[in-house]
Amino acid sequence: MGRHFRVAGRLALKLEELGVSVPAVLRKAGLPQDLFEQTRVLVSTNELFALWHAIGAVSADALIGLKLGVEARRERFHPMGIAALSTENFVAAVKHMARFKKLTAPEEMPHELDDEEFSVSFRWLLSVEAEPQVMLDYCFAWMQTIAQHGTGRKVTPLRVEYVAQRPQMRAMERHFGCEVRCGSGRNAIVFRAADATAPFVTRNAELLDMLAPQFDAQMKLHATEDSFVELVRRAIQDRLTGHRPSIDTIAQALHMSSRTLQRRLQEAGYSFQRVMDEARHQMARYYLSNSVLELNEAAYLLGFEDPNSFGRAFRGWEGMPPNDWREMHRVAARV
């Protein structure tokens, strides 16, 4: 399992087409303004959730997630989507996507087929909060898009289930063409078994065979990238003892030049500063949730000049002051 998600560059294009400012979204999410200009856009679970929360906050359209999940132009599909369309039916397509996700990202796609129904869900394994509703909308709309492109006809789900209450219920039902249930015990999109097992008109065994080696190589690349970034992050955390280690210090600890360290991080879609921020963020959460350290002590151990600097950084990471975050998690632990 990888520890990061790769965000498709087409997301920025779709946002712009739908009138959503990409720079505003990235600012709101606290992500680099050049995020979508990177060769491979890799984000952690927290960053992925922040990105989708920001999309929902910046857009004035309550259905923005659904609209982002609809794609009429197949040439814009991610290679994983093209490979999914090359399988024999929707069930096989979901199994293909689920395998890819499980191996390359901290995400699972639970799915179940019986005589009447085929249900698909999404599970983010490293999340500490509920997934953004906008992101769920996108995932469900994307499943319907795959089913419709594959069968070559309009596919209407039996129902869509949400745990949380949702506004614009009627509009959502018009979009999916089926009942939308809120207050359910799970988040899932449910199709008729007959639709899920109907042959794909896009079936292309030859193309799937050609893409298989590329996916295997990509999965190995993800594993290599994650292991190296994690290695750098741990090296930083080991040296966060009252001061912030420099890139030269970390490079020396890893027995390489600082230039080589920078290059390998860039190839993985990272910068040294970003790994540093992630390392401090992880340690901050650990100190606040698993110890009795005072805030000024935590700030010192994380290499901040003073508690105020730590507080500003933590609000950028979690959207709230460190004291509030600590109290919220203490209450949750007691419950």
TrEMBL record:
It holds the Pfam family Arabinose_bd. Keywords: DNA-binding, Transcription, Transcription regulation. Residues 230-328 form the HTH araC/xylS-type domain. This is AraC family transcriptional regulator ligand-binding domain-containing protein. The lineage of its organism: Bacteria, Pseudomonadati, Acidobacteriota, Terriglobia, Terriglobales.
